[in-house]
Amino acid sequence: MPNIIATGEVEDLIKWEEGFGTHGELFRSQTIKSPVSFTTVNEGNQIVVSFEVSDVDTFFKELESPDTAEAMENDGVKRETVKFFVLDKKMEF
Q: Is 20 domain-assigned?
């Protein structure tokens, strides 16, 4: 399954973490598998999130849903700062 890395800025790290943890049903609609890994950085309120998804197309389609927009707004995500990277290749060594 591909992984997707998301980076961005939030208004308040504590508020974001509290809200982020309540979106299990929304994550399932985006084909995200549990657990979700994330880190927060105090400087600039930066976040980095790693999602394992079963369907990349569905993930990106659901990102455009009103439910996702509402969740991001409630959590204080600065949408204009969010970037996604699909990790769909592996290297063996």
A: yes
